[in-house]
Amino acid sequence: MDLPEWLATVFEHEFTESQRSRVAEVITAINASTLSAAEMERGYGVIEGHARFLGAVILLHREGDDLEETLETATWDWRDLLLGTGLEHEGWPSVLAEKLGGPSDGDPLRG
User: Fold this and answer.
1) Is 109 part of any domain?
2) How many distinct structural domains can be found in the chain?
3) What is the distance in angstroms between the CA of the first residue and the CA of the last residue of the chain?
4) Rounded CA gap, 7 and 81, in Å?
5) pTM for the complete prediction?
6) Which tens digits make up the pLDDT trace of 51-106?
7) Does residue 106 form part of some domain?
8) Structure-derived torsion over alpha carbons of residues 59, 64, 24, 110, reported in degrees to the nearest 10
9) Helix (H), strand (E) at residue 1
10) Is 66 a domain residue?
């Protein structure tokens, strides 16, 4: 899964290896379903989608939500994840960085 380095570190500390594998599988599938074939081929939106969906999963996990329930919800309506975590608008990269301790200057998706 393509992620900014700081978010990959958060992901590694937040979940066990088996949980990370499961989360990555679901997020990769969701991200692929939201992008066109041309976008996927060019790599457009891949890092952004992975970061956004993973950020939502981490935030819900930290709130005490059951991981499997979160992933199940994500597979049938990923928008609920974004709405439930404040990542539904175009300013989501800054919100994600603020909530998870990412870089506060520059582009949080490149840091």
Assistant:
1) no
2) 1
3) 16
4) 17
5) 0.87
6) 999 999 999 999 999 999 999 998 888 889 899 999 998 889 999 999 999 987 77
7) no
8) 20
9) none
10) yes
